[in-house]
Amino acid sequence: MRYIIGIDEVGRGALAGPVAVAAVAMPKNLGFKIKNLGKLRDSKKLTPLRRELWFEYFKNHPQITYSLARVYPRVIERKNISKAANTAALRALTRLCSKKRINPRKCLILLDGGLYVGNSGSVPNARTVIKGDERFATVKIASIIAKVSRDRFMKRLAKKYPRYGFEVHKGYGTKMHFRAIRKHGPSPAHRLTFLRFS
Q: Is 177 in a helix, a strand, or coil?
C-alpha cells in the first residue's frame, strides 16, 4: 500500500458551529525531521501556537495531502452528531482521493475511534482505531488540521455573531458561553438539540 490515510474530527461536543473532519494522505514510512516543533502529538495535547506551527508545516509539506469537510448545525440536528461526523468523514475521504487520484482500496485508512466510512464492502481497508489520534502519525496530523481549521472558522463566525465569544471557546460549553446564551438566546450557529440537554 503506497499511502496511509488518517481521518479525525473535531467539534463533536460543541454547542455551536460545525463538526469538522480532516483526511490526510502521506506515503508509508514517511518520517519527520523538524526543529523547534517538539514531538508530534494529538491536537488536544498541543498549545494553540504549536498547533498553528504544525499546521503550516503540513500545509507546505510536498508529500502530505489533506482535505476537509464540515457538517453544520441544522444537518447535525437532523441526522444526529455521530451520523453527521461520519458523513463529513466520508466526504473528506472522497475529496482527498479525488484530489490526489488515490484508489482508497489500495490504501490503509485509519479513523479515530467513533468515526466510520461506508461499510466493509465499499471501503474495505478502513479501520476505526480507539485512540488512533495517540497512536498513528496520520491521525495525529488529521486531528491538528481539523482543529486548526475549525478554530479559524469559529473566529470568523465570531465576527458574524459577536455576542457569544466564539473566538474564545470555539463553541464549546464554557461558563462564558452559557451566560451569553442565557442573555441573548441561541444564534443560528447553535445546535438547539444540544442546548436542551446541557
A: helix
Give start and end residues of each alpha helix (H) in 33-189: 48-59, 73-79, 81-100, 132-135, 137-160, 166-169, 175-184
Q: List all residues 6 or more positions away from 167 whose beta carbon is below 8 Å from its beta carbon.
A: 154, 155, 158
Burial tier of 137 (Cβ tally within 10 Å: 0-12, 13-18, 19+)? middle
Domain boundaries, the chain: 3-196
Superfamily of domain 3-196, CATH level 4: Ribonuclease H-like superfamily/Ribonuclease H (3.30.420.10)
Predicted confidence (pLDDT) per residue in 149-195, tens digit: 999 999 999 999 999 999 999 999 999 999 999 999 999 999 999 88
Largest CA distance in the chain: 54
Give the pLDDT confidence of 110-151 residue by residue, as tens digits: 999 999 997 645 677 899 999 999 999 999 999 999 999 999
Dihedral sign of CA atoms 144, 150, 154, 156 in order: positive
139, 142, 196: which is closest to 173 by C-alpha?
A: 196
C-alpha of 167 from chain center? 17
- Contact (CB, 8 A) for 128 and 114: yes
| Residue 141 · residue 154 · CB < 8 Å | no
Could you tell me the pTM of the whole model?
0.93
